[in-house]
Amino acid sequence: MQKWVMSGLFFVACALALVLIFTLPGKDQVAQENKTQMPEVTLNAEQAEAVIKANCISCHGDQLEGLAGPNLQHIGATLSTEQLYKIISKGKGSMMPGFKDKLQDEEIANVALWLAEKK
Fold first, then answer.
1. Annotated binding-site residue? 6
2. What pLDDT was estimated at residue 19?
């Protein structure tokens, strides 16, 4: 009786393993999903400032001097446009929320371009 139970459990474990092998995403697929592609935009400083005033000053201050969030006055010297785009889109840690669901990709790219010029 015990042999039947053990062989049944073994069969179920093998079947589950086969299902997982063919349904879980591969390493390349996960890397592609995590890659954030920044759209090409032309910098519009007025629009970027408006987006920042509406979404960022509560944490980063009205002069980007930093409050709850870090100082962004010279962030372009530290981070590239693509890095800024990724952080604004997806967020960073528990303090910086992602804005991908709140802002359009073009707005995020414009803000990233504007911040990248802050050197």
1. no
2. 86
Q: What is the mean pLDDT of residues 48-58?
A: 93
Do 93 and 101 meet the contact criterion of CB atoms below 8 Å apart? no
CATH of domain 43-116: 1.10.760.10
pTM of the model: 0.70
What is the reported pLDDT for 65? 93
Break the chain into its structural domains and give their ranges: 2-33, 43-116
Q: Is 60 annotated as a binding residue?
A: yes
Taking the CA atoms of 33, 36, 40 and 42 in sequence, report the sign of the dihedral they define: positive
What does the block give as tokens for 36?
């954030």
**Known binder of ligand: residue 14?**
no
According to DSSP, residue 104 is labeled -
